[in-house]
Design a protein that fits this description.
Structural class: alpha/beta
Radius of gyration: 29 Å
CATH class of the domain at 2-81: Alpha Beta
Number of strands: 5
Shape: elongated
Strand content: 5-15%
Distance between the termini: 61 Å
CATH topology of the domain at 2-81: Conserved hypothetical protein from pyrococcus furiosus pfu- 392566-001, ParB domain
CATH superfamily of the domain at 2-81: Conserved hypothetical protein from pyrococcus furiosus pfu- 392566-001, ParB domain
Number of helices: 15
Largest sheet: 5 strands, mixed
């Protein structure tokens, strides 16, 4: 291995470059940085007769050309480098610098595994990463292009963690459509990872529940949490306003119900009858306070709540 400055004109990029997309804005930014403080990290090349083949550092090379530089600091690898070794070096260099987007990274690792007939465990050892991390990265390849592209969007709620949850759901239920339903809900309602996990918890606990019902429950909880923050910030007023005090009481009831569901989940027949009596009494009182309730069925009210969320 040798380190020295070489002419940019003598360097050729290899066709097997694992990075497929280059952001011109980022390259321009890197060029400005190099112009300001110089090249802080060398490119890696292989000597080939009178010229050099680029192993790693395509972005740095493009930035230097944009900056008008004539020479580049390079680490020169001696001896012949097999295509498999080339890909391994490129992968490790890009993984350490976090230069690849999630899809490029997964495709490159998968090809590296196929070319070398490696298991996930073997590949993780060669690339110097945890096996669980490698598995998380590779999950993206098992999804439709629609969801792969969502992960790449800067403003999308979908992350690799969401894909991992969706993959686990499909494995547990044996139904690939479930993971599509879940990810569609993540996109539509901008669900966080924590909210997505809550959807799965509800779905696994109440298997008869349609996915949209589990999502609706989490969305309702999201709104309730907003209200709890509101009451906490406005507690002084709430204590002197009868309606606000009533709403705080309902909020406490909901907290108790959620706590019971998380701990127990089921009610005896006797307890169901007692709670139903209390609910019907409360519904009658609410019908007096809010006359419009008398003109709507429970189903209509639930449908309206879902549409609002």
């Amino acid at each position: 291995m040798e380190y020295k400055e070489i002419s940019l004109r003598n360097i050729e990029s290899r066709s097997e470059q694992i990075r497929q997309e280059f952001c011109e804005e980022r390259i321009a930014s890197l060029a400005r940085s190099i112009a300001e403080v110089g090249q802080l990290q060398p490119v890696v090349v292989q000597k080939k007769n009178s010229h050099y083949l680029l192993i790693a550092g395509e972005r740095r090379l493009r930035a230097l050309k944009k900056d008008g530089s004539e020479k580049v600091a390079a680490v020169i690898l001696e001896g012949e480098i097999s295509p498999e070794k080339f890909r391994q070096i490129q992968l490790i260099e890009n993984l350490q610098r976090q230069d690849l987007n999630p899809l490029e990274r997964a495709i490159s690792i998968n090809k590296f595994m196929e070319d070398n007939n490696l298991t996930k465990k073997d590949a993780a050892e060669r690339l110097g990463i945890a096996r669980t991390t490698l598995t998380l990265w590779l999950n993206i390849l098992e999804f439709k292009e629609k969801y792969q592209q969502e992960v790449l969007k800067a403003d999308s709620a979908v992350t690799l963690s969401h894909l991992s949850l969706a993959h686990a759901l499909a494995s547990k239920t044996g139904d690939p459509n479930k993971m599509n339903e879940l990810l569609d809900a993540v996109i539509r309602h901008n669900l966080s990872r924590k909210e997505t996990q809550a959807v799965l918890d509800i779905f696994h606990k109440y298997l008869h529940l349609p996915m949209e019902e589990a999502v609706a429950a989490v969305l309702l909880k999201r709104e309730r949490l907003k209200m709890k923050d509101y009451w906490a910030a406005d507690k002084e007023k709430s204590n002197h306003n009868p309606v606000r005090k009533l709403l705080r009481s309902f909020n406490n009831i909901n907290d108790n119900l959620e706590e019971y569901m998380e701990k127990e989940g089921n009610l005896s027949e006797e307890a169901q009858e007692d709670l139903l009596d209390e609910f019907l009494y409360l519904y009658q009182i609410m019908g007096i306070l809010i006359p419009d309730l008398k003109n709507s069925s429970i189903e209509d009210l639930l449908a309206e709540m879902k549409n609002n969320n």
